[in-house]
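From the shared-data thread, chain only:
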Amino acid sequence: MRRSVWTAVIVGLCALLARTAAAAAAGPAFAVSYPVAAGATALDGRVILLVSRDLTREPRSHVSPDALLDSPFLFGLNVEALKPGDKALLDDAAFGWPARRLSALPEGDYLVQAVLNRYETFHLADGRVLMLPPDQGEGQQWTRKPGNLYSTPLKVHIDPARPTAWALSLDQTIPPIARKTDTAFVRHIRIRSALLSRFWGRDVYLGAHVLVPRDFDAHPEAHYPLMVFHGHYPEDISEFRPEPPEADLKPDYSERFHLAGYNRIQQREAWAFYHKWISPKFPRFLVVEIEHANPYYDDSYAVNSANLGPYGDAINTELIPEVERRFRGLGQGWARFTYGGSTGGWEALATQVFYPDLYNGAFAACPDPIDFRAYTLVNLYADANAYMRQGEAVVIERPAQRDYLGEISATQRDSNYAELAQGDLGRSGGQYDIWQAVFGPAGANGYPAPIFDKLSGRIDPAVAAYWREHYDLSHILERDWAALAPKLQGKIHIYVGSADTYYLTDAVYFAQARLEALKPPYQGEIAYGDRAEHCWNGDPTLPNALSRLHYDFQYLPRMIERMEKTAPKGADLTSWRY
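Structure, as tokens:
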């Protein structure tokens, strides 16, 4: 080996040792590496360090944006071309939440674990070259993504007075996820999207879980209405269970609903729906849940966007027609409906608005912000900062999550800093990052243009103006109502709890004022659940914990009434009613 190479190696080792020593002086540090057995090639991605005070659970098992109070400490560091045996050093330079730096951790015993969320290089059709985490069939969840590496949890004692450096080996790999198999009632399809493959510069697939009616195979003459249930990445058809509830299922406790044994309730209700589905007089139709996870989130929001590509067109002009072809859908707008809650509520409404002729009604429960004057609690057009309200002498942090009594469990800053620890440049897979990716333009660096600075919370008015014109559904309905009215009258139904967990109620208030002022009238429905948290879906007769399990039949009477009222002359209203 030449002297210059030896010199470079020695200089590099000295730099690493010096950095390790400096980190030790400032606080704890963790040198993360992976063995040759875990991968022979260099890897790109984000090393996420989890430091948990709970010594009874694997740290990666309780990372959730919906339960930040239950989260471990998170720290993140990007790595590029990390080779087997190389050390990625997480020290005080790593961004952390809720402790900004490792040196800010209080003294105590912790369970520590590291995960490498692997990135790949994407060459987009427009020339952008981006480093992103591809979905691997798990719904963009880095804690359980196949191919991600992780370390065995290590118990450590952290003492700020005695800084220590530890080594963590990413010696385990998350295994692949098996594809679902077809059953008598649940079928699965997967198609290559030509539109999305062209955008992303690689093969992109869309999937669907399809719930078929009783005696579907025995009635080849029947053609069916289609109900598209929008929502987060579905593992399979939701709330449908042909098997009896497990007799020995250990009851859990739902903090959200303050219910013991909620897992048992879910199984019971899913089994009850199965019996409705197979009963002689139950209407026959197709239920579809869509797989459209992408490098930014567990779904695409079912619209065309600058950063995710033409998912709206791909779903509605490629996937849905293929579902109807294979499963004998009626294939006409009067016989299609959309519904869903939260992300799915926004998607249901957006699909109806952007594809008004393709669907005959949208039932949008607890939708993500449909009016950006209330982007949760932020007015993107009037506020200067998303994280705080500035008074004359006081600064108030804006909340992001609450319970139905108003108890706050996270602030806007908390939610966004937790995402930033898990991924920069909008790559966390989190809620705020996907809103930014879907609703915004591409930034100068090729990644989604931030709606606000992730560190300071400062809002970018130019990006907010782009959001308004492209994805503010309330504004778009008002702006385009002259053309949309003949296509949308009677089709819009919106439901939300007055105490929505994520402050989604206010956007519905704003949208309602606009909708009710439209001429001609929108002829739809908006309702609020008293003291109901996320995700109230319009049933005032049952508690939210139960009604949220009834999406697939709750709106059915109104759908059938709508079809009978609007079906064109000669339409098939009988073959599917055997």
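Residues 374-469 form one domain.
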